[in-house]
């Protein structure tokens, strides 16, 4: 079993920045990433990164968010810049090892005007 511990959420003004971190309790063999869920909306892919560093982003965050990964620390990061009101959501860390998928408990990001 793998535990994912997220940190870095909080309240920020529009235009500001936040950095999320997600530490896995064991090495992750495949992709790690972030999804988000806002009230009244479906879960949305934010960004994913493979163990080799290939990145993919949701259309709404391209050019503003950057995902990175430190395999030695079993940790994935999400640098969020130029935050918008519509980025407000609970952000969930996701990790895949083989055929198994793991989720973090979620961290709230609130962007205020």
Per-chain topology:
Elements: E1 4-7, E2 10-13, E3 18-24, E4 32-37, E5 44-49, E6 55-57, E7 65-70, E8 75-80, E9 89-97, E10 100-103, E11 107-112
Q: Percent range for helical residues? A: under 10%
**What's the helix-strand series?**
EEEEEEEEEEE
Termini, distance in Å?
40 Å
The major sheet is characterized as:
7 strands, mixed
What's the helix count? Answer: 0
Instruction: Report the average pLDDT across residues.
Output: 96
Residue fraction in strands: over 45%
| Approximate shape | globular
**Spatial extent as radius of gyration:** 13 Å
Low-confidence parts lasting 5 or more residues at pLDDT below 50?
A: none
**Which oligomeric form is depicted?**
single chain
Total strands: the figure is 11
Instruction: Please state the structural category.
Output: mainly beta
Structure report:
The chain is mainly β and 113 residues long. It is 0% helix and 54% strand. The protein contains no helices and eleven strands. The chain has strands at residues 4-7, 10-13, 18-24, 32-37, 44-49, 55-57, 65-70, 75-80, 89-97, 100-103, 107-112. Strands 2, 4, 5, 6, 9, 10 and 11 form a seven-stranded mixed sheet that branches. A hairpin with a 5-residue loop joins strand 5 and strand 6. The chain is globular and about 40 Å long. The N and C termini lie far apart (40 Å). The model has no long low-confidence stretch (mean pLDDT 96).
């Amino acid at each position: 079993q793998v535990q994912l511990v997220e940190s870095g959420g909080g309240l920020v003004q529009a235009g500001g920045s936040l950095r999320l971190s997600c530490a896995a309790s064991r090495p992750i063999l495949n992709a790690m990433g972030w999804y988000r869920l806002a009230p009244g909306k479906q879960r949305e892919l934010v960004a994913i990164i493979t163990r080799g560093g290939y990145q993919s982003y949701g259309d709404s965050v391209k050019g503003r968010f950057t995902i990175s990964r430190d395999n030695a620390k079993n940790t994935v990061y999400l640098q969020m810049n130029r935050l918008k009101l519509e980025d407000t959501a609970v952000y969930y860390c996701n990790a895949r090892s083989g055929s198994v998928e793991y989720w973090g408990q979620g961290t709230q990001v609130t962007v205020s005007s």
